[in-house]
Design brief:
143 residues; alpha/beta; Rossmann fold; 5-stranded parallel beta sheet; 6 helices
């Protein structure tokens, strides 16, 4: 299990608004990073803060019509091909601002992929509105 936190808590703290309120009312895109968590784990944790209908997008399937989905979940976003990234970016451009939210997961840091040209910078900034980092797993050895 993880404890959600943002990369820039100063923005949240300055406004005095809890993160769950931002997730529910402002509907920002969320990038969940860290250990390779199954999408089910992410969804179980974030479910109370997301609006239905929630669509799990598998990159080998077509994206739904933007108006048909309130929350789009994209697992392992770092593994998307450039064509799939372009399709997702085009879908985001068609979606009504503030009406559709994308929750994406990745076990890899995306910025180095952006620097190497294997991940679109525009998509990176669109998905990385709020970043939730999973804490590092630690093995505790008892003696």
């Amino acid at each position: 299990m993880f404890v959600p936190r943002t990369v820039a808590p100063s923005t949240v703290a300055r406004e005095g608004i809890p993160e769950w309120v931002i997730l529910r009312t402002r509907r920002p895109n969320v990038l969940f990073t860290g250990w390779h968590a199954p999408c089910e784990t992410v969804m179980a944790t974030l479910q109370p803060y997301l609006r239905s209908p929630i669509y799990f997008w598998a990159p080998d399937t077509a994206l739904p019509a933007p108006g048909d989905v309130t929350t789009l979940l994209v697992c392992d976003v770092a593994t998307l091909s450039l064509d799939q990234q372009r399709a997702l970016l085009s879908w985001l451009d068609q979606a009504a601002p503030g009406q559709t939210q994308v929750v994406s997961t990745t076990a890899l840091e995306l910025f180095p992929l952006v620097e190497h040209g294997t991940f679109l910078d525009t998509l990176y900034y669109r998905l990385n509105t709020i970043r939730l980092d999973a804490p590092a797993h630690r093995v505790v050895i008892e003696h």
